Amino acid sequence: MRKVVSLMGAVLGFAIVQSASAADLPTKAPLMAPAAPVSWTGFYVGVHAGAGWSHIESSFPGSGFVFSSHDLTGAFAGAQVGYNWQNGWAVWGLELNGSGSNIKGTGTCTFGNCTTKQDWLANAAIRFGGLVNSSTLVYVKGGAAWSKDKYSSSIITTPVGDTRTGWLGGFGTEYKFDPRWSGLIEYNYVDYGTDTVTVGIPVNIKHIDHTVRFGLNYKLF
Questions:
Q1: At 135, phi and psi to the nearest 5?
Q2: Is the model's pTM score more than 0.90?
Q3: Is 1 within the bounds of a domain?
Q4: What is the CATH number of the domain that holds 160?
């Protein structure tokens, strides 16, 4: 009987020691739920700023002789709104942009010095891109573009306005650093073609733009 009691006491003592040791062990942290996949589908709004380089050529109608050309440089800033559709690795999008501009330049011409200034820029374009990973998109874009140009010279001091229409092609990359926030950098080539503008006399004016913009987008839903 004494042996049985002794054996039971030894077993009980061992159990108590094991329970105390287990209580001292660190508790494992619960497993984290896997992060939800980043989705590019949805509406977004954003802001942007950038720089532009333009080239202007002026000629008399029907002559083909360029009597003046000058470059424009400056900055612009504005806002954009768009929508993306994601299908696997491919992302389609439609985006509208509008910017106030301080792109301008002056060169010599028949009328002394001729100055061109872009008051604002706008475009509507389709984007198509591929995902390098779930957060990084590279894309190309193409669409229609508009510019409000103003022309003046040493003789014609009151600016003559002209709303230009053209086409654009570009490319860029956009990175999601949050499910809703993303940043982008983009280059666009814009050709506004040739317009006949009356600046005292009719003049054909050809306008080409190069722009680089940096943007920040917020996905609404």
A1: -110, -10
A2: no
A3: no
A4: 2.40.160.20
Beta-bridged to residue 137, according to DSSP, are 131, 174
Domain assignment present for residue 36? The answer is no
Q: Which domain holds residue 73?
A: 42-219
Distances (CA, A) of 122 to 95, 151, 153, 217: 11, 19, 25, 17
pLDDT tens digits for 97-112? Answer: 999 999 999 988 877 8
Per-residue pLDDT at 3 exceeds 70: no
How far apart are the C-alpha atoms of 99 and 104, rounded to whole Å? 15
Confidence band, pLDDT 50/70/90 cuts, at residue 28 = low
Evaluate whether residue 132 is within a structural domain: yes
**CA distance linking residue 113 with residue 139, whole number of Å:** 41
Tokens of 50: 């950038």
Phi, psi of 34 (to 5 degrees): -60, 140
Tell me the per-residue pLDDT of 54-85, one tens digit each, with 9 for 90 and over: 999 989 888 878 888 999 999 999 999 999 99
Residue at 7 is within a domain: no
> ∠69-74-78 over CA atoms, to 5°?
130
